[in-house]
Amino acid sequence: MTQEQMIEAVKQHHPEAPETQIRIWLNEAIKEFSRRTRVVEGAVTFSTVADQRYYSFTSIDSNLFEVEEVWFEDWSIARLQSRPQKRDSV
Amino acid sequence: MSEKSDALKFAWWIENDKVALVYADTTNVNDSYSSPSVVKTVTVRGYFNADEFVEADTGGSNETGMTEACSLPEEFHSAILSKAVQKGYELKPETIQSAQYFENQYERGVQKAKRKANTGGLTRAVVRLQDL
Lengths: 90, 132
Prior knowledge:
The complex is a heterodimer of chains A (90) and B (132).
Chain A: H1 3-13, H2 19-37, E1 41-47, E2 54-56, H3 57-60, E3 64-72, E4 75-76, E5 78-79
Antiparallel strand pairs in A: 3-4
Helix pairs in contact in A: 1-2
Chain B: H1 3-7, E1 10-15, E2 18-25, E3 32-34, E4 41-48, E5 52-53, E6 63-64, H2 77-89, H3 96-119
Parallel strand pairs in B: 5-6
Antiparallel strand pairs in B: 1-2, 2-3
């Protein structure tokens, strides 16, 4: 279904609701559904910046909310459970 | 040093919704970690929100315009509709029962999607070769 069709379908139940409000309801539903079901799985590629350690999820992809695996070039690299115990100089 | 052994010296973790990447030198008793000084391609596999609905057909990534289809699989569109309809019925005390009906419909869609995500595609099973 297109967005237009979905808005029309909601309007069948709530004819008085403005389109903007229905879009907000639909977007809240899409976000909650995606996070609870984890049905949208995928991979995204980006280039590192020299001497930069942290890359926010939103800077990698605005829809990304959980990371399972990371490849450096073509190699899957080890995941640490938390930041290293040894203090370092960032 | 080979490309593989170079790459395997890197490690990652999650901190405050950020991916942290470090070069981990664990070859001696004084392990050291530093931010990667090289510019390389990194691929992240994970879970994503479906694209958000926007008013105009902007053609932008991660957005769904008015005439474009919802990016979730078709079989789950009814669940999204149920949730939106539920939210509308929750606004009036006299339609709370209708809201509960649509909430149940939505929850059924969630359970179906979870089953699909847990048993679905080949991407879930990854066999990784290890050097011995």
